[in-house]
Amino acid sequence: MLQSLSSNSCVKLIRKNKSTWYFTFLLLGYLLYLIFGALVFSSVELPYEELLREELRNVKKQFLQDNECLSESKLEEFLEKVLEASNYGVSVLSNASGNWNWDFTSALFFASTVLSTTGYGHTVPLSDGGKAFCIIYSLIGIPFTLLFLSAIVQRIMVYITRRPIIYIHTRWGFSKQTIAIVHAVGLGIIVVTCFFFIPAVIFSVLEGNWNFLESFYFCFISLSTIGLGDYVPGEGYNQKFRELYKIGITCYLMLGLIAMLLVLETFCELQELKKFRKMFYVKKSKGDDQLCIMEHDQLSFSSISDQAAVLKEDQKLNEPFMSVPPVTYYATDGSING
After folding, report:
1. Which helix (H) or strand (E) is 330 found in, with range?
2. Is 307 helix (H, G, I), strand (E, B) or coil?
3. Helix or strand or coil: residue 98?
4. CB under 8 Å, gap of 24 or more: what pairs does 133-138 form?
5. Is the Cβ–Cβ distance between 221 and 228 less than 8 Å?
6. Nearest Cα to Cα of residue 221 among 118, 131, 136, 148
7. CA distance linking residue 125 with residue 111, whole number of Å
8. Residue 64: what pLDDT?
9. How many Å apart are CA 117 and CA 222, to the nearest integer?
């Protein structure tokens, strides 16, 4: 008897705190995924790092043997200055001396990477004034960019996502959920093709030392705003039409970022994903429902959608294909019959 009561109380406790348990599993899953990534990267990249270190030691040793008049300390001092300059995007190589990092087009490219939070890191401010201005510029510009991009995506969503789904639903009577899933997958395929595969082919042609994988890697790292900076286009020796090329890359990054946000927002509006996200949210109390301070959907990535439109879409999902208004009959004596 006591055992059954205790088991029932445990079950009730688990059901009452279901979202807490889901969130705990989510946290554990994320930590495991993080550790998994670290193990894979370490096992894959560590041998290459050791090989590169050994190669550099051999090259340095051979250089000192060929130039006995140069001491190792002087060489170390020179290399430190070269590496420090390289961290600021300045190279001492003769084939890189013609490329300026702070002409207008390069500065425009840098500003776009700062505002989009891509930040390749290949070019950084050299002066204290430039660093201070970068802080103020980013503090204002990043929220401004988010507002600008969200406004664009919200407008595009009306014509690319919502209206086509409603049109197909009313024209052929398919389920809105099915149409939304097919539409999201199709839109994702189009964006991947137009902003990943095709640009990767173009970059592999324009950048002589990039293969297709490296070009695709650059596109993904850039449009996902990771921006590692190991691959930056337009930095090659004697790059033709470099200024025009930099402007084109800037436009590509902004358009690609809009396309990525459009796809993510389209997927976030799927009812299945909304239900899945709500599994990990804290359930609102009655007081929170009365206050109506903030809906859970506003806390998700889908912050750029118009909440009223989303609520209307949710209501329409439960409606039949076509609603028929009630017919009212007027009798001869003036009474109304439904």
Report:
1. strand 329-330
2. helix
3. coil
4. 137/111, 138/114
5. yes
6. 118
7. 11
8. 83
9. 10
133 Cβ neighbours under 8 A, 6+ residues apart:
125
Structure token digits, residue 97: 């001396």
For residue 75 the two structure tokens come to 């060489």
Contact 153, 262 (CB under 8 A): yes
DSSP 106-126: HHHHHHHHHHTT---SSS---
Length of the chain: 338
The SS3 of residue 320 is coil
Beta carbons of 203 and 213 less than 8 angstroms apart: no
Report the SS3 class of residue 79. Answer: helix
CA 213/CA 208 separation, integer angstroms = 13
d(CA 134, CA 124): 9
Across 273-286, b (16+ Cβ under 10 Å) vs e yields bbeebeeeeeeeee
C-alpha dihedral (147, 149, 153, 156), degrees to nearest 10: 110
At which residue do the structure tokens 């705190």 appear?
17
- Identify whether the C-beta of residue 273 lies closer than 8 Å to the C-beta of residue 305: no
CA distances from 250 to 88, 143, 256 (A): 21, 19, 10
With beta carbons less than 8 A apart as the criterion, state whether 259 and 195 touch. yes
Percent of the chain residues topping a pLDDT of 70: 75
Block means of pLDDT (10 residues each) for the chain, 338 residues, are 58 72 90 95 92 89 84 84 76 62 86 88 84 94 94 93 90 89 94 96 90 94 88 76 87 94 91 82 63 46 44 45 41 43
